[in-house]
Write a structure and sequence with these properties.
The chain is of the alpha/beta class. It has a single domain (about 5-380), classed as Glycosidases (TIM Barrel). Helix content is about 40%, strand content about 15%. It has helices at about 15-25, 80-85, 100-105, 130-145, 175-185, 195-210, 220-225, 230-255, 265-270, 295, 310-325, 345-360, 375, 380, and strands spanning about 5, 30-35, 40, 50, 55, 90-95, 150-155, 260-265, 300-305, 330-335, 360-365. Strands 1, 2, 5, 6, 7, 8, 9, 10 and 11 form a nine-stranded mixed sheet that branches. The protein has a two-stranded antiparallel sheet with strand order 3-4. The longest helix is centred in the middle third of the chain and has 27 residues, at about 230-255. The model has no long low-confidence stretch (mean pLDDT about 95).
């Protein structure tokens, strides 16, 4: 079974680290080539707490970008990492965050998602329906491909959600599932929402602000019944825009001779904090981000899902659902070998086995620099 390790260039500054990754049984590395702001605990890194900035980990190529140019986070050593991977028989992919950039969003608020009150208040979320953003995404894909990676792991090629739009988010209002979802929808001109859909969203959110939130479970049926048919129809059309964007990025990468793995982060939306996703299977809830797994899978080299869960039975069910949706396309399952999802080596092995038996073609691990070495040592036995 194929397996890649997600890592940051900072974590691989000493390319001897690649020998350890190969020793785990991984046959590839997905290195962050374009990433977002974060502050990470990095227990075996050169810095023990690492501050990351938005942008590229290589110089901006001349003449490729138009008016929207990505910042440079740090001009890392991707060339040395690529050479080190080749020496050890590891494939090298470029882990690329596309539309989640606070730096770009603050500089170009008109390109970010606009809520039902007409406010651009999610600077980390560029709108995937905006033509300028779509051009930027294709250009970013080309830029990463030209670093010499064999493929790209594409993160954040979809709409953003309300709960992850900025640093230090605060709310002392009980929104309920529906209002929380509606506050994260984009109603900009490029999304072209019907006026009735905007009004329906605004009414539900203002009801929550007044202390009377709707507490119904977030489903497409609940949107139609409790919010309104126009809003439900508008939401149902969002995956078309995301699928079109993925197609444009895939076309750009194909022209560069580079593969594309689409990372569907719905599993993080449901289980990131505690590894205990609830409700519908992950694939069934991907519509919340405008993701249509069946349609997107036909445009990409492989499809990646996040198994951020403690429960092996949940992994089995989630993997089967994605397998049913994407057919015979390669399915990659991303796991965290330690907290908060995995107790010990036996638990990790059981989860890998569950994914494999349910139809996974590859199991990838997140994240090398953020995981203690004693926890990473669980991987060889699991593989």
């Amino acid at each position: 079974m194929s397996s890649a390790m997600f890592a940051f260039a900072d974590d691989l500054a000493d390319t001897a680290e690649l020998a350890r990754i190969a020793g785990y049984g991984c046959d590839g590395v997905a290195v962050a080539a374009a990433y977002h702001q974060a502050r990470d605990v990095t227990p075996h890194g050169r810095t023990k707490v690492t501050l990351r900035r938005d942008g590229l980990y290589f110089p901006v190529p001349e003449g490729l970008f138009g008016s929207l140019v990505p910042p440079v986070a740090r001009e890392g050593s991707l060339d040395a990492i690529r050479a080190g991977c080749a020496e050890r028989g590891l494939s090298l992919s470029g882990w690329t965050v596309f539309l989640h950039s606070t730096t770009l969003g603050l500089a170009h608020p008109e390109l970010t998602q606009r809520n039902c009150f007409g406010e651009h208040v999610a600077p980390a979320d560029l709108c995937p329906a905006n033509p300028e953003v779509r051009t930027y995404a294709a250009n970013l894909a080309r830029a990463v491909a030209r670093t010499g990676v064999s493929s790209i792991f594409a993160e954040s090629l979809h709409f953003g959600a309300f709960g992850h739009g900025y640093h230090h988010e605060r709310s002392f209002v009980e929104l309920g599932p529906l209002a929380d979802f509606l506050l994260g929808l984009c109603f900009c001109a490029s999304c072209d929402p019907p006026a009735a859909a905007v009004e329906q969203a605004r009414t539900v959110v203002e009801q929550a602000f007044a202390g009377e939130p709707l507490r119904h479970e977030l489903t497409r049926e609940a949107l139609a019944e409790h919010v309104g048919p126009e809003l439900a129809a508008f939401v149902a059309g969002r995956p078309d825009r995301v699928t079109e964007l993925v197609g444009e990025v895939a076309k750009a990468l194909a022209e560069e001779g580079c593969g594309l793995t689409y990372l569907d982060i719905t599993g993080a939306l449901k289980g990131y904090g505690d590894g205990r996703p609830s409700g519908a299977l992950t694939e069934r809830d991907s519509w919340r981000l405008g993701i249509d797994a069946a349609a997107i899978s036909q445009l990409v080299t492989s499809y990646g899902m996040l198994a951020y869960t403690i429960d092996e039975a949940r992994i089995t069910a989630d993997v089967r659902a994605y397998r049913d949706a994407i057919g015979d396309r390669e399915l990659r399952v991303v796991m965290r070998p330690g907290l908060p999802d995995t107790r010990d080596a036996g638990h990790l092995a059981a989860k890998v086995r569950a994914a494999r038996q349910a139809g996974a073609d590859a199991v990838d691990f997140y994240n090398y620099g953020m995981t203690p070495l004693s926890v990473l040592d669980r991987i060889p036995g699991a593989l």
